[in-house]
Design goal:
Shape of chain A: globular
Distance between the termini of chain B: 39 Å
Number of domains of chain A: 1
Largest sheet of chain B: 3 strands, antiparallel
Order of helices and strands of chain A: EEEHEEEEHE
Order of helices and strands of chain B: HHEEEHHHHHEEHHHHHHHHEEEHHHH
Number of strands of chain A: 8
Strand content of chain A: 25-35%
Strand order of the largest sheet of chain A: 1-2-3-6-5-4
Structural class of chain A: alpha/beta
Strand order of the largest sheet of chain B: 1-2-3
CATH architecture of the largest domain in chain B: Orthogonal Bundle
Oligomer: heterodimer
Largest interface: A-B, 47 and 54 residues
Structural class of chain B: mainly alpha
CATH topology of chain A: Beta Polymerase, domain 2
CATH superfamily of chain A: NADH:ubiquinone oxidoreductase Nqo5 subunit
Number of helices of chain B: 19
Helix content of chain A: 10-25%
Strand content of chain B: 5-15%
Number of strands of chain B: 8
CATH class of chain A: Alpha Beta
Chain lengths: ~160, ~450
Amino acid sequence: MADEQELVHGAPVSESHGQRCVHPDRDQYLAVIGALRDEDELRMCVDVTACDYLMNPLRVLPDGVTPERFEVVVNLLSLKHQSRLRVRVQVPESDPTLPSLYELFPGTEAMEREVFDLFGIAFTGHPDLTRILMPDDWEGHPLRKDYGIGRIPVQFKEAR
Amino acid sequence: MAKTFDLVAETAEGAQELQPRQLTSGVEALRERGAVLRIANLPESVEEIATEDETMIINMGPQHPSTHGVLRLMLELDGETVLRSKPIIGYLHTGMEKTGEDLTYLQGTTNTTRMDYLAPLFNELVFALAAEKLLEVDIPERATWIRMLVTELNRISSHFTFLATNGMDLGASTMMIFGFREREALLAFFEKCSGLRMNNNYIRVGGVAADLPDGWRDDVLFLMDDLPERLIDYDTLFTGQTIWQERSQGVGVLTADEAIALGATGPMLRATGVPWDLRRTMPYMFYDQVEFDVVVGTYGDTFDRYAIRVNEIRESIKIVRQILERMPKGDYRVQDKKVTPPPRARIDESMEALIHHFKLFTEGFKVPEGEVYVPIESPRGELGCYMVSDGTAKPYRMHIRAPSFVNLQALPHLMRGGLVADAVAVISSVDPVLGEVDR
């Protein structure tokens, strides 16, 4: 392969176990996904999820992509070409916001609500950004790595 | 002193609920008018049908017999007509994705199998396939064929449960008895294989938990000879019956464009006429080596979604018969000592085997760093597993893309303008499993 990095709509590409990932930055995000939908005919947004890389900051990313704490992962599917593409966008901890995909794919509404609920990443332009799985008055975002998991108190811990 | 309960406060979900019209924001109002989805034949605004003082917002669920678990729907009704609706979910949320981060890859299938409790083997399969892709191990052929056999049988049992509940929701209680009778016969086979009727934990990373039991071929053959005859009864009683047709045809119509825009998959998408079945279009395991038809509908209504599942049972029977012919001899799990525990007999005679056994069940095996998304076709649609590994023995992140979760979001579009009684038919035809929706 040539030294030049492969770009898709201006965003670097990586490959993981035979699956292609595109890494746009936050400003490119909407434009890249819009172009993928309209030009590459990835007409279906299958999944929106996220990952909190607080405990694992040194992951492999293509050149030019700055690792941040959060990563939002969007899975796109083309029914016509029977292909998939993953979009991974870095979201910094200091400003966890991302534009909503709602105008491009109305089906992402619930998925973005789930990411907001469990990771605390706000999607600007989302019509109804409320918690979806947790109760409305819940504090914290459970899938963040600094959110403790519950423990059942152990009886007779002090006994020798 | 008797304690008084504030019932409104007890059930309130705050901003998650369906809000009065003046509180809905601009884009949300557009969605309710269908402007974003470009739904045809909708009036400009719900205001044109009825003003807010003529309508009422009522709750259906979470404890309603036709909500398939604990789904709660808020409906704005004008008399019997549904104007707006909103599903409120999360009542079964148990944080399984968070739990999954604290379980080893060996324990992980025990967790995921409890998500879609009507098709548990699919959840195990997608988890195992994702972990195996990260591990880059090759599974023995027999293990893959066993996996195909049990998941196809599971697809049949899941569709029978759908037929049972769908009939029950529309007032056909015969269907309820029939569906569960057939399902029970299939669950008895799973019990023979894995010891458990449901939540089998049979498919593990690296293969399956145990080889098929003695006499499995006769059991499966008996089922495959028996079920087609039973299906003829279904057709006589329901498919060709006028009451059933009039009750379900033209109810809850979804077009192909809407289904694709909403991300709906499985029978929801195929009912609209899109021949999209991952087993055929993007084959995994050995589905490219078996013959079967992808069943599609025409009108995208409740009847089509029912008919697709009836006929998918027939296609699955076809696949199972081919699997019976093709089933090779060999290992049922990969003979990689770093992944598979040694056989019980070896532990008595080999120190190495004992150490391996101990290490595998305490520490688990390490999976190389990476991230991967694996989709399969579950009875409800595309079931995906997004898995991130950081090189340790536990997944760093394990996300299940649940088909019911996405399909459920089509409910407001399907119910709009229909009757309350049709709303029940629509929920049922989506076939949501709330354990999977809420995870």
